[in-house]
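Trying the structure run again after the queue cleared.
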Amino acid sequence: MEPYGNDHLFHDSTLAFSSDVEKWLRDQGSSEGDLSQRRDVFRTRLATKRCVVVAGYEACRDALEEKEFVASQAYNELLSGVMGETTLLTMEEDGELLKATKMLLHGTILKSMDHIVFTSLIPKLEERLDKLSGKPVNLYEVVRDCIADSIVSEVIGPHHIDERQQLDLLLKDHFRAASRPPVKLKLGKIWMSAFQRGIEARDKLLAKFEAVVKNFEPSEGESCSADCSSLLCAIFTENNNWKMDNKTALSTKHLAGILLVLSNTIIPKTVATLVASTCASITLDISLFEKAHNEAKSCQVDIKSCAGMQENCSETIRLCTKETLRLWPALIAAPRKCNNDVIFRGYKIPKGRYVIIMLLAGNRDPASYGPSANEFSVKRWKVTPPPPEPLSFGGGPRSCSGRDLAEKISVAVICKLLQKYSSWQLKKGSNPLDYKWFPVSAHREPVKFVFTP
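Done. Tokens:
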């Protein structure tokens, strides 16, 4: 049996999908237009491609774990992305190579996270906010820029201003291409399409990061030199550990790809959205703010560990962050492609068919989160048993390696803000509930805060 829906050539729904994905889900998934009554699996056509969309929480979880649904370049083809073109965001299934890359990336993040946050990010953030105390602050922009600056500093060092400016421009071109039509077109030195500019930016970035890896790689059998940054030390340590266990190590090219993943602006944008959205929700609820503020103030201010912050400083902040991730995931969908014919939840999915796992819909499924699934409520996580974990970072064998990075950095930053400022206000006119979803979720218009000690 085929899923409900219409994927005929003249029923392409790309425009509706990209303009208002929430309305599109209601209209596509249910004949009644009621999101709570939607079908968990349905057919449609996006960017001329025949797709199966998975929407309910349990269906999304099953799809994330389905071995025949492999990672695809669907964001390239369906959402006009450049990110997954090589190993930048979405890597094709490649056995041991994929496993090694994911493990090395995860280990690198865990080893270098505290150094990045407490040696670089927090001081930069405090410096920026001190200058803006009592004035309207675009928190998303400040956090995004401070994180990007901190990570790039780790990769190429805190100096080399000209080189940093060039890297910033390349990273912006690379990311911007994700929301442009995938047209590779260039007219000499006069003009090139945004997508082509993103491809060239990617190649220049990879070349730069390969040079960084070659310059900092320690000699065989030696420990990492004191000249390299913490992040690079972590990469080489993890690569050597993998080599000892598996008799081989990742190449310089793959290590450069990992540096590009870490430096890519999607990480600063994701964390910045999480911080700004969580802070907005806390600010809108006076009792929630007071509780989070009191918990943060009672925490030891000299904790220099993201894990320590998350465990000891504020349960309220942690739960607010989780609820924010549920309602507003950074990436609303996980793209897959069916590797072989498979029966999924009673439906026949043919080989080669695109499968779009709608994390946004799964996270708001009333069957899993109750009738208030579309509302922000920290209380839902305090019941026994609690609802299932949000699917915002995927799941199964292809869950996102950056989950710890996003969650722990966000908790640490918000805790520091609560310790430093006793009054938070939203600037009049800010709408913290109005979102755009592509290429990553963010407030449609800047939401500005006024922080005072």
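The two ends are 62 Å apart (CA to CA). Worth checking whether this holds up in the mutant runs.
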